[in-house]
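seq as requested:
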Amino acid sequence: MTVSTLPRGIQLVQWKNQDKSKSIKYRVRIIRKDFNADKLFDDLNEAKEFLFNSKTKQGIQSIELAREELIAKESAKLIRQYFEKRTIEHYSKVYVSDYIDTIIIDTPMRQKTVYTIKSAIKTFNNTEITITKDYPKSNGEFGFSADIDIKMGDINILDLTHIHLDKYIDKRLKTVRRGTGTLIKKSSVIAEVSLIKQFFSMLKKIDYDKFNKFDYTSLFNNIDRKPLRHAHEKREFIIQNDDEKNLLEAIEKYSNPELRWVILLSLYTGMRNSEVLTLKHNQIKLEQNFIALTHTKSRRPRKVYLTQQARELIKEFSNEDYSSDKNVFKYKLGGFEGAFRRFRKIHHLEHIRTHDFRRTLISSMLKKIGESNSILVSEILGIPNAQNMLKQYSNEEVKFDTQSDLQKSVGHGDLNITKKYTVINSSEQ
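struct tokens:
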């Protein structure tokens, strides 16, 4: 068939094969508002059929379906190739098995740490990102590109680039948190990336021969940090009188009295959420007027001294033998957080967070006792670093220019050196 006798829309072209021989192919090129195609055929009848199908809505649908099937087939092939290699998920499972599951969980804080690491790795592996796959020329069809979704855990670990990590960060920042309807915080994503980096830092120990020259540091250093800017803006919120009044009135009416006890104990003592919820009866020393915390954020035991309000509150819920090692509260950390979240929403107190109780108490005590007695305040509240406490909770700049300032630091410029020699005699209170 000559060029002049070909149907309109079909071109005769010479095709150069891989072996440098030449062959004749039939080209169908369509450019319309509703449909575009550029395809080569070895057989004229196939070219005519394709051209005919392109003129009907049903025919276009069949062409698009065939194209989607090809993409799906190639995507499955790509994922299968990834699985045949060593994937991120494979090595992360080795990391968890050899270095995380072997951690001795002897405190609630350590249990939370292990859970957080495993949760971050699971989230990383299961997060899908969109990558662009280039499909080469094959079977007479011109090459094209298509976007496919792939889980981070399915990527060959040696193929990972900072672009993949950028896409992961972007996807996480657009993720809505279950139960709250709010977006994941930037600070949470930064924490996830930090834990993932920790995993990559262990790859040489997992497989030295494979990862001896693997530069994970550059990989993470090249991440685009712009989307994560301003993640750690200092929160300076203090619970005001109206908020405190509304809070106290609302918790008095709450069906579960434990919520009230946990909130008030935090508000009266400045104890952290995790410290209150893991409190045991034998840690309460009413006669000595303090709570002996053994599992803290700093991993060092400390005493939290009790005000009269705190003592009266403790008498409400702790009437058991103070030698008992049972937990005071039935709430677990996750259960309390969920209950408190629902409570705040019902009573329009979403702007209050549990850590605000601690900040409010410390700031209030600094105002009442005076910042010049910051060592005393830190000792009463069981805060190990008095200088950092002033920086975090005081509006006054810390200086060491006067005799009073030098007395605080005992000439060392560090309030904690003096604090080591400061002991409150509980029997005198």
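Confidence is low (pLDDT under 50) at residues 395-415, 417-429.
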